[in-house]
């Protein structure tokens, strides 16, 4: 799954743009990169742009990703907004991810557009 993670200086947000079909390995790499930047920039506002995903990961991968968060000490500081894929293929998987992470006490929300997601992060 190709993705890019960058720090949006003007917003104080760490953004990851996903495309393709996610794998557990690529998600783990992305999580590590996000937290590296978060520690460096002292911000835990994450924006996941999933509009270009062509399919979701397996439910097990989404569950495992949520479990990975539990192992990171700063994970409870994270506020994560996820922009849903344009394609219907990954939407149900993203909803499962949201439910799984929220059930673990993480502050994660799904959005249909970028500006609404950013507005929520900046509240």
Beta content comes to 25-35%
Shape descriptor: globular
Low-confidence stretches: none
**SSE order in H/E notation?**
EEHEHEHEH
Strand order of the largest sheet: 1-2-3-4-5
Could you characterize what this model shows?
With 123 residues, the chain is of the alpha/beta class. Helices cover 42% and strands 27% of the residues. It contains four helices and five strands, in the order ββαβαβαβα. The protein has a five-stranded mixed β-sheet with strand order 1-2-3-4-5, with helices on both faces. Strand 2, helix 1 and strand 3 form a beta-alpha-beta unit.
Features:
123 residues, alpha/beta, 5-stranded mixed sheet, 4 helices
Short description:
This protein has 123 residues and is α/β, with parallel strands linked by helices. 42% of the residues lie in helices and 27% in strands. The chain has a five-stranded mixed β-sheet, with helices on both faces.
Provide the fold topology.
Elements: E1 3-8, E2 13-20, H1 24-41, E3 45-53, H2 59-70, E4 79-83, H3 91-103, E5 107-111, H4 114-122
Parallel strand pairs: 2-3, 3-4, 4-5
Antiparallel strand pairs: 1-2
């Amino acid at each position: 799954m190709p993705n890019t993670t960058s720090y949006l200086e003007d917003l104080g947000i760490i953004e990851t743009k996903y495309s393709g079909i996610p794998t557990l390995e690529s998600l783990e790499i992305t999580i590590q990169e996000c937290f590296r930047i978060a520690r460096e920039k002292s911000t835990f506002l994450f924006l996941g742009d999933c509009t270009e995903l062509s399919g979701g990961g397996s439910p097990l991968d989404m569950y495992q990703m949520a479990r990975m968060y539990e192992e990171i000490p700063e994970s409870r500081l994270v506020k994560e907004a996820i922009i849903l894929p344009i394609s219907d293929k990954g939407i149900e998987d993203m909803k499962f991810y949201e439910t799984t992470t929220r059930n673990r006490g993480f502050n994660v929300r799904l959005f249909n557009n970028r500006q609404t997601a950013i507005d929520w992060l900046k509240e």
